[in-house]
């Protein structure tokens, strides 16, 4: 189930984001979380089964474009379709939008058998 990020999930979100290559140091993670908390065009969502096991961060761009900036799944839950479920949930929430991704997320998205334009 897709849930919107709130401050109470900060440590869990930082833990999931830390699995991303460019989010390894604490300063970077703190800045990333701050961006999602303060910028109106950035949105962070978590995927909850019994526990929170995945995260997806998006930025809403002009002309009805959404860029997936972050996508991560707890290693213990990988290869179970969670990243695809995260993508599908965003796709269903933003039906009128074109979805693109960053280079950092592109290979993970491709692993989910989804083809997106890379910005």
UniProtKB/TrEMBL annotation:
Gene3D superfamilies: 3.40.630.30. Residues 31-92 form the N-acetyltransferase domain. InterPro entries: Acyl_CoA_acyltransferase, GNAT_dom. It comes from the Bacteria. It comes from Gottfriedia luciferensis. This is N-acetyltransferase domain-containing protein.
């Amino acid at each position: 189930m897709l849930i919107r990020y709130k401050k109470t999930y900060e440590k869990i979100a930082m833990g999931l984001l830390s699995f991303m290559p460019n989010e390894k140091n604490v300063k970077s993670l703190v800045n990333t979380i701050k961006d999602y908390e303060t910028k109106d065009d950035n949105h962070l969502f978590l995927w909850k089964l019994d526990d929170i096991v995945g995260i997806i961060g998006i930025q809403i761009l002009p002309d009805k474009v959404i860029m997936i900036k972050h996508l991560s799944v707890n290693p213990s839950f990988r290869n179970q379709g969670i990243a695809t479920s995260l993508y599908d949930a965003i796709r269903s929430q933003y039906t009128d939008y074109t979805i693109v991704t960053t280079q950092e997320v592109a290979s993970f998205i491709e692993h989910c058998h989804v083809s997106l334009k890379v910005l």
